[in-house]
Specification:
By secondary structure, this protein is of the alpha/beta class. It has helices at about 15-25, 75-90, 95, 110-120, 135-140, 155-175, 185-200, 205-215, 250-255, 285-295, 315-325, 365, 395-405, and strands spanning about 5-10, 30-35, 40-45, 50-55, 65-70, 100, 200-205, 220, 260-270, 270-275, 305-310, 310, 325-330, 340-350, 370-375, 410-415, 425. About 30% of the residues lie in helices and about 20% in strands. Strand 3 (about 40-45) and strand 4 form a beta hairpin.
Length: about 425
């Protein structure tokens, strides 16, 4: 297996990245989250037990892998402590397996209040955020006014920074959004508790990762959300507030491009999206309801039902390009079992588009295109227990072959169920 592997989602998130990371973590020395916050949710099913993670990397269930929250992640103290305590209750030794960057910006009560006020104030133009305060926290990072993990270990400095930050945001909450001000007292108390909790976990994660790399250890970089939610190359403005693409590893974890050996892109056998924004292949018929029901398509973080549609090969090729994907991992393949016809969007009909719009993948462009489909025959047999690609139904193999042709990238693995061992390994070097 390559020593440094980036695992990214190639759609709108919820592609099943957590399962892929979990599968590969058994041979890794470190699993690193490099962006996002607790607005992401990775679901793992091991021996029938479901674990939903929001901040802690998906490698935490493997004793050999160190789980690292790098500086590109915005951390909600209450969420991280709650998640760690949940894992400790299951016998996971968090203090041995988890490290957190001293440079992580914190998501505080004022950020959550501002997130909610903005969505309420926006009327029909809502982004559809998770209301976790992620966007406002990233804004503070760029504006250089964040309270960071390192600050909580200096109580006097931390309280001063909290007072300044809350005064700044309360002005907007009260005078612009006509919302209630947020009292900083509870946050000061929370961060005092957080400092004590985090003291054995916080460190210089950049230096630590480069030492692991020099020692020739395998490192997995785990993305949150998906490429089409990237703040720069996604469906702007209906995007998250960080760089979800593979390039985010350089800025979010401090490991440069020359030290990345492989980029593994994760894609569902169909497509889903949570929240607002364009979704060209979205279905509003019985096929869409069937995908949602069979795929149990509800957000791991919010519980919101996911919008479902056919696979969009046009957007997929865009995602492969901007991530320089070397291999694909196809998830939820068994959800397609029983469909008489399966469709793939292979082009867009742009005939009704205002020609002033740049042909890109932003929200304005995608909201006006219509997909051009290629139809393929479905299959009636179950793929849920198949463990070899050549034992899949002929129609299922044809679907995968066509996907590889369109993507111009090989499929390295296929997930055929929620359990850890429900997979087809097509590339023994990756899943050794």
């Amino acid at each position: 297996m390559a020593r440094s592997v980036v695992i990214v989602g190639l759609q709108w998130g919820d592609e099943g990245k957590g399962k892929v990371v979990d599968l590969m973590s058994r041979d890794a020395l470190a699993v690193v989250r490099f962006q996002g916050g607790d607005n992401a949710g990775h679901t793992l099913v091991v021996e029938g037990q479901k674990t939903v993670l929001h901040l802690v990397p998906s490698g935490i269930l493997h004793e050999s892998a160190l789980s690292v929250i790098a500086h590109g992640v915005v951390v909600a103290p209450d969420s991280l402590m709650s998640e760690c305590r949940m894992l400790e209750g299951r016998g996971i030794p968090i203090r041995e397996r988890l490290r957190v960057s001293m440079e992580c910006p914190l998501v505080l009560a004022c950020h959550k209040a501002l997130d909610a006020a903005r969505e309420s104030h926006s009327g029909g133009e809502k982004i559809g955020t998770t209301l976790r305060g992620i966007g406002p926290a990233y804004e503070d990072k760029v504006a250089r006014r964040s309270v960071r993990v390192s600050d909580v270990f200096d109580a006097k400095l931390c309280e001063s920074k909290i007072d300044e930050l809350f005064e700044y945001h309360n002005h907007a909450l009260v005078n612009y959004h006509q919302a209630d001000a947020v009292d900083p007292a509870a946050t000061k108390s929370l961060l005092a508790e957080f400092a004590e909790f985090l003291e054995p976990l916080a460190c210089d994660t950049v230096a630590m990762l480069h030492q692991i790399r020099r020692d020739e250890g395998t490192i997995l970089f785990e993305g949150a959300q998906g490429t089409m939610l990237d703040v720069d190359v996604g469906t702007y403005p209906f995007v998250t507030s960080s760089n979800t693409v593979a390039g985010g590893v350089a800025t979010g974890a401090g490991v440069g491009p020359r030290h990345i050996d492989q980029v593994l892109g994760v894609v569902k056998a169909y497509a889903t999206r949570v929240g607002n924004g364009p979704f060209p292949t979205e279905l509003f018929d019985s096929d869409g309801r069937r995908l949602a029901d069979h795929g149990n398509e509800f957000g791991a973080t919010t519980g919101r039902p996911r919008r479902c549609g056919w696979l969009d090969a046009v957007a997929l090729k865009h995602a492969i390009q901007v991530n320089s994907v070397s291999k694909l991992f196809l998830t939820k393949f068994d959800v397609l079992d029983g469909f008489d016809r399966i469709r793939i969007a292979v082009d867009y009909d742009e005939s009704g588009i205002n020609r002033r719009i740049v042909n890109s993948f932003d929200g304005e462009y995608l909201s006006q295109v219509k997909p051009v489909y290629e139809d393929m025959p479905g299959w009636s047999e179950s793929t849920a227990h198949v463990r070899s690609r050549d034992r899949l139904p002929a129609e299922a193999r044809a679907y995968i072959d066509r996907l590889e042709e369109l993507a111009e990238v090989e499929v390295a693995g296929i997930s055929t169920g929620a359990e850890r061992d429900s997979m087809i390994c097509c590339d023994s070097e990756i899943f050794a």
